[in-house]
Amino acid sequence: MSVDSVLSQGLGYGIVLGFGLVFAGLMTLITLAQKRFLGEKMTSEEYLAAGRSVKPGLVASAVVSSWTWAATLLQSSSVAYRYGIAGPFWYASGASVQVLLFSVIAIELKRKCPSAHTFLELISARYGKQAHIVFLGFALLTNMIVSCMLLLGGSAVVSALTGMNVIAACFLLPLGVILYTLFGGLKATFIADYTHTVVIMIIVLMFSFTAYCTSDLIGSPERMFDLLHEAAVRHPVEGNEEGSYLTMASANGLMFGVINLVSNFGTVFLDQTYYQRAIASAPHTTVKAYLIGGLSWFAIPFTLATTLGISAIALENNPVFPSYPNRLDPHAVSAGLVAPNAAVALLGYGGAVAVLLLVFMAVTSASSAELIAVSSIGTYDIYRTYINPAATGKQLIRVSHIITAVFGFGMGGLAVGLDAIDIDLGYLYNLTGVLVSSAVGPIVFALMWSKQSKIAACVAPVGGLAMSITAWLLTAKLKYGVINMTTTASDHAFVAGNVAALLGGALTSVVLSLLKPDNYDFASTRAVTIVTDDMVCTDSSNEVEDDEKHQVGQSSNSPSSSAEDVTEKKTAAAIVEIRPSSAADAEQAAQDEAKMAKASRFARWSSGVMTLILIVLWPLPMFFSDYVFSKTFYKGWVIMSIIWAICSTLAVTVYPLWESRDAIVTVVTSIGKMIVGGRRRSTGAV
Predict the structure, then answer these.
(1) Core-most of 455, 470, 500, 665, by most CB within 10 Å?
(2) Confidence band, pLDDT 50/70/90 cuts, at residue 563
(3) Per the record, which residues fall in region Disordered (predicted)?
């Protein structure tokens, strides 16, 4: 028996295509209701920035949805299957701290570039064209890799469960997403994100309560403990204390944790998706949204993998397991098929449908975030910057529509190509940091360090990339004697490449900046303008002259004071405008800045403390103590994971409804009145 035989191809096409189109129709209707009953107008700002006033609960839900990839659901269970309970923890902690720490970046973006549409606009305003092009390349590469991971993981599961053609799945999965993103823009993706998050959290809790409470095969943490102990006797885990699945003392698990931690800095800090949610959020609640989102997201891979990944270990010796009497093939594990096999063993047909729906929701929700992110970059950082600096809001929306459609289907083609050369989800997931994390340090410095120079911003990301690729391939060669898909996929090679990327880019930037430091005051980034449908950006000579005076007044050591930069500022004048403000405006701005400065301080210490707990204080003492869980301790571990999931569900499903209750009541009441009024007219009643 294999998971291929569980569901029919018809059901696969029905969910991927039919459900996708129905969901797109539902999102479109909700968008229309908002326009009619809440008076929302689809300007370019509304389409690509959601009015910059989204409440924290909805932003947190959107962050959770955007960060819940197919990999979140599939690879977390795969590392649980490989390393035991250490796998889910390191996956969750190593990928949640970036969202927590991004709260600092989010509030700094609101402070230093309040009218930005993309983080690349800040780069352009501060450093000019060359640096903008460098970061543009890294940003688009990040979006392409993330989109491919979504489609590779999603298509693998759909194909495994239903036998649906992988190529068809790669192109049909994003179809519904493209439709509602085209129609509703960023606000539609927020609503879709919320809906997807609700479904995902419900299914995660369903699997947890099934495995640990109601299943005839397991039914309790105590029974799971016994099954895992027996599994360790049959198949001890190399590198784990006593070969046990029930320990955090896992050498390979820790190595994966390092890869996971380092690589995910790149996929958060260089993904426009997370900046876009910061841009869309209300300024004074940005930090709150990211802290809630980061802690809530932790529960998804941690609880799901502690359920499905661990259940796969416990049940693979049972005839109900699809691969019985064999263990899962390593390629199937890397492709993310541990969770589907465990779900089928636990719940049969229903489990397969639940996993299919779970993966569909994860792929489509994260894909919508990637689509609108790439659309924003293409619209503002390519079209408006280099093609039509005088573009109106209506033109920007039109271009955004084109980019959304082209990128959506283009990523389907790229995913098919990667699948054809046998690059699967696991390989691409670990490779991501090698390719993009070298730009993390420079982008953080661009927002938070006035001394980073233009030359450092341009050179450090590229230099760090050269270091990371060299370290990755050289480690594979030195350790295994040959460079191929197998050796480059080793944990040692990926650790070397990922660490070299993150540290290489950051240290190169620091060294180059200290040799010739800048002295930047963020005035030009604060002057980036908002575009509306009735405003055309102009290249005002006065504005350029003011900007030149500002640059000349800077330190002579500042690269920004060069003639080359003044020329680049003229080129970028269409997106930079220094606007006068009244005394009242200045007073209000000062108050707002004080509030955001306070929020920034809170973000730094709170995210720092939580990161210290999740990466150091919680796991490392358990690792170095070589502790193997007792039955009582394991029971508490499982109960904690379920409680965390319940709290997260309340935070990202109930809280957004509560904070938007007035708008919901307005829409529902208006629809009710419209229906009643229509009935009266049709019956002739007065």
Answers:
(1) 500
(2) very low
(3) 541-566
Evaluate if residue 558 carries a pLDDT over 70. no
Is the pLDDT at 578 greater than 70? The verdict is: no
* pLDDT-derived band at 554, boundaries 50, 70, 90: very low
- Distances in Å between the Cα of 175 and the Cα atoms of 142, 151, 172, 193, 456 are 21, 12, 5, 16, 41
SS3 sequence of 131-170: HHHHHHHHHHHHHHHHHHHHHHHHHHHHHHHHCCCHHHHH
User: Distance between CA atoms of 393 and 94, rounded to whole angstroms?
Assistant: 40
Question: CA–CA separation, 139 vs 384, rounded Å?
Answer: 17
Mean pLDDT, residues 9-34: 77
Closest CA to 510 of 451, 464, 465, 559: 451
Tell me how far apart the alpha carbons of residues 245 and 319 are, in angstroms, rounded to a whole number: 21
pTM of the predicted model as reported, rounded to 2 decimal places: 0.83
Token duo for residue 531: 């575009």
**Burial (0-12, 13-18, 19+ Cβ within 10 Å), 405:** middle
- DSSP symbols for 602-653: HHHHHHHHHHHIIIIITHHHHHHTT-B--HHHHHHHHHHHHHHHHHHHIIII
Residue with tokens 């970036």: 98
Question: CA–CA separation, 454 vs 461, rounded Å?
Answer: 12
Whether 13 contacts 164, CB under 8 Å: yes
With residue 465 as reference, give the H or E element that holds it.
Answer: helix 454-480
Cis peptide before 325 (omega within 30 of 0): yes
Spatial neighbors of 119 by CB under 8 A, at least 6 apart, are 109, 135, 139, 272, 275, 443
- In sign, the C-alpha dihedral spanning 440, 443, 449, 452 is positive
pLDDT at 161 over 80: yes
User: Per mean pLDDT, which range of 429-433, 585-589, 599-603 is the poorest?
Assistant: 585-589
Q: What is the dihedral of CA 344, 347, 352, 356, to 10 degrees?
A: -120
Residue 565 pLDDT exceeds 60: no
Cβ neighbour number for residue 625 with a 10 Å cutoff: 12
Which domains, from first to last, does the chain contain?
3-421+579-683 (1.20.1740)
List CB contacts of 567: < 8 A, sequence separation 6 or more: none
d(CA 200, CA 327): 28
Which of 538, 530, 434, 536 has its CA nearest to residue 490?
434
